[in-house]
Amino acid sequence: MFYGVTRYSLFSPGSHSWKTSRSGAFKTPQDYMRYLFSEQRLNLRAEMFFTKAVPALAVMAENHDYKHFVMYSELLPKRHQEILFAAAAEYPFLVPVEWNGVVRGTGIEEVRPLIEQDLASKFDADAGIQPIAWFRLDDDDLLATDYLTHLGRYRTMNHVGMAISFGLGLTAYKGEHELVNLREFYHPKSAQGMAFVSAFDPRQRSLSIVTPGPHHGVDQVMPTILDSREHMFFQVRHSDQDSTLNETPHERVAASLARLDRLPAVRAADIAAEKWPSLIKDIVRGEPVPHELSSPGAAPLRLTEETAMTFPLNSAVKAGLVEFEFEYESANRLQGGFAVVSYELQGADDIDPEALGLRDSPTYGLSRQAWSKSAHGVVRQSLLLPEGVSISGITLRGKNRQPADVFIRLRQPRVVAVHAAG
Fold it and tell me: Strands, DSSP E only, in 8-65?
């Protein structure tokens, strides 16, 4: 038996969570409610949850005894309540739950009576104690279609009272029409994909739940199993996420992209498409195409200290995400930076290069090194253009003292539009 809970743009008038949420971005509950129920934000959540997350959950429901409770407020705009009810009509495992009181943590305490009622209808009083697995899912995250299959291995009496952390996932940034900058995300004790095993007593008709507290400290509350063997969650990053809403729209996107650049780059071909049926087209569409110098069948290019390859870009484009990417291979293990990528920006004279994730070098100009550490054979750099700044080209240069021959395959540099908050 499996149960999930999602707090869908939930606003509780009696709750004080708005005071500390979003790093103090909101001064009053009314400010928070205006943000929470803004049409732009709700449209994004509806797209992510109902067209991306729910179809994956539906695959789970086909193979497992599973219900998912979606908590919403009576203040949720009517059109979006109707979207929720329509989804529940299409997917019977979805259970809308109107909730207007304070929510304690994950929301599982609030829906526990509904879970107990459902379980009591399935087990006779003499059936014995039953292990039950449950999890929380944010309305802009996704789980792999085989998530419950993997979680089912731990739904045993021996694991009652334990947390299960699936610590390996994927993440990408939401473009206007695609997912860009796909990365592998190793995040032990992440809220995404974390589940819990509880015990249901049919005789008492009660489900015993230990409140886990903050996810990053769950192992201080209960024994925690860490299973990071496969990609189990997908975090879609965008400019309306909690951790960056106290900043400007540009700062939000830039901060999220900077975190992505520290993670190993992966390609659509490296992941199991059947785990992400609602995302795979967006992922493939978001990948840059091979450069003409690295077309299929072409020999890889040798990168040397004399290499200086410039790729022109349309300087008329004044906004978007600049992406530059290449694959590399070498007979010897590379140490540290082995190439430099220079960015020819216009209108950036008054901007601190560090704010762009660049350094101003007397040799290379505004640039960033290509590092081999954790790169897994793919170097992918991204740069968010500030308002009024354009880019006319990108130059790739090899560095001296290479330990061995380095060969590369290029992807076409590009500027893509990304979803940005207003």
Answer: none
Q: How far apart are CA 94 and CA 332, in angstroms?
A: 53
Q: Which residues of the chain have pLDDT under 50?
A: 19-20, 22
Q: Among 89, 106, 93, which Cα is nearest to 6's?
A: 106
Task: Say how far apart CA 70 and CA 7 lie, in whole Å.
Answer: 6
- 105-145 pLDDT, tens per residue? 788 999 999 999 999 999 999 999 999 999 999 999 999 99
Please tell me the distance from the alpha carbon of residue 25 to that of residue 28, in angstroms, as a whole number.
10
The span from the CA of 290 to the CA of 183, in Å, is 18
Q: Comparing C-alpha atoms, which of 129, 159, 108 is closest to residue 3? A: 108
pLDDT of residue 252: 72
Work out the end-to-end distance of the chain between its first and last CA atoms, rounded to an integer number of angstroms. Answer: 42
**148: which strand partners?**
none
Largest interatomic CA distance in the chain: 79
H/E segment holding residue 385: strand 378-385
DSSP assigned state of 287: S
Burial class (CB in 10 A: 0-12, 13-18, 19+), 392: middle
Dihedral angle of Cα 233, 236, 240, 246, to the nearest 10 degrees:
70
Collect all residues with Cβ–Cβ distance below 8 Å to 321 and sequence separation of at least 6. 173, 175, 180, 181, 253, 257, 382, 383, 384, 385, 415, 416, 417, 418
Model pLDDT, residue 20:
43
Q: If you write DSSP's letter for every residue of 388-418 in order, what string do you get?
A: T-EEEEEEEEEPSS-SS-EEEEEB--EEE-B
